[in-house]
């Protein structure tokens, strides 16, 4: 069983669905050779993909191109279906920094064949999260920067105002189509600058005024 750890107050949430938003920064969509989407692109990861800061990510043997994607992660704290925008905002109870690790070579192959690219996203430890910070200790600020370093070198550096769809909009879009429940996580998309990692690399991701995480590629 997998748990989300909330820094304060002391509690845990059982993780339900892990939902992710694709191409939610226009510059990242462009670097992927795509137009910015008109509606959020949603995909899922299983709870078995989840791991926490300071853990190791084993390079899958069936891939030769694993990429990092630093993201803001939302923790849902109440059951909602077809909410107002305010109810969607109120359902977000905590925030974290996350890494959506992606097997880019497999993803590109699946896209070329017109097949679902689930297997490029759902390998073990492919959804890394920091400790969660409750709303009130941190409130979403679009001016805050999201930054990722590989071996101390900055690779991603953007402001969250560059999101195409903001957190409450994402929550409402999803909850209009499926019920969201306490313990669901939403990865909100990554800015431009994604790239390949190698065994031995250290990844550091952080969001200004929120928190940070570290992961090790083995």
Describe this entry's structure for a reader:
Helix 2 crosses helix 4 (167-175). This protein is 14% helix and 37% strand. A hairpin with a 4-residue loop joins strand 1 (3-6) and strand 2. The chain has 218 residues and is mainly β. Mean pLDDT is 92; it is low at 6-11. Strands 3, 4, 5, 8, 9, 11, 12 and 15 form an eight-stranded mixed sheet that branches. A five-stranded mixed sheet has the order 6-18-17-13-14, with no helix packed on it. It has one domain (3-217): Fumarylacetoacetase-like, C-terminal domain (Fumarylacetoacetate hydrolase, domain 2), CATH 3.90.850.
Write the layout of secondary structure elements.
Elements lengths: L2 E4 L4 E4 L3 E5 L3 H6 L9 E5 L4 E3 L2 E3 L8 E3 L1 E7 L8 H7 E9 L1 E2 H9 L14 E3 L3 E2 L10 E6 L2 E7 L7 H9 L9 E3 L7 E2 L5 E6 L3 E7 L1
Parallel strand pairs: 3-15, 5-11, 6-18
Antiparallel strand pairs: 1-2, 3-4, 7-10, 7-16, 8-9, 8-15, 9-11, 9-12, 13-14, 13-17, 17-18
Question: Could you please say which CATH topology applies here?
Answer: Fumarylacetoacetate hydrolase, domain 2
Low-confidence stretches: 6-11
Give the CATH level 1 class: Alpha Beta
Q: Give the overall average pLDDT.
A: 92
Number of strand segments: 18
Whole-angstrom Rg: 16 Å
Helix content: 10-25%
- Series of H and E elements: EEEHEEEEEHEEHEEEEHEEEE
Classification by helices and strands: mainly beta
Query: How much strand content do the residues show?
Result: 35-45%
Name given to the CATH architecture: Alpha-Beta Complex
Q: How many H/I helices?
A: 4
Based on Cα principal axes, name the global outline.
globular
Fourth-level CATH superfamily: Fumarylacetoacetase-like, C-terminal domain
Any idea how many domains? 1
**Biggest sheet layout:** 8 strands, mixed
Terminal Cα separation, in Å? 24 Å
């Amino acid at each position: 069983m997998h748990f989300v750890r909330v820094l304060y107050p002391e509690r845990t949430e059982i993780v339900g669905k892990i939902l992710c938003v694709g191409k939610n920064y226009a510059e990242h969509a462009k670097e992927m050779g795509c137009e910015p989407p008109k509606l959020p692109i949603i995909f899922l990861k299983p709870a078995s993909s989840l791991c926490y800061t300071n853990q190791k990510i084993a390079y899958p043997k069936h891939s030769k191109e694993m990429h990092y994607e630093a993201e803001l992660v939302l923790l849902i704290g109440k059951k909602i279906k077809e909410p107002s925008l305010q109810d969607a905002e109120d359902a977000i109870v905590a925030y974290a920094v996350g890494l959506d690790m992606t097997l880019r070579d497999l993803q590109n192959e699946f896209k070329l064949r017109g097949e679902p690219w689930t297997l490029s996203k759902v390998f073990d430890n492919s959804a890394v999260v920091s400790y969660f910070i409750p709303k009130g200790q941190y409130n979403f600020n679009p001016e805050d920067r999201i930054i990722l370093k590989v071996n101390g070198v900055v690779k991603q550096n953007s402001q969250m105002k560059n999101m195409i769809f903001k957190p409450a909009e994402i929550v409402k879009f999803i909850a209009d189509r499926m019920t969201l429940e306490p313990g669901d996580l939403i990865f909100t998309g990554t800015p431009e600058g994604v790239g390949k990692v190698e065994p031995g690399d250290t990844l550091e991701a952080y969001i200004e005024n929120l928190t940070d995480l570290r992961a090790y590629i083995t």
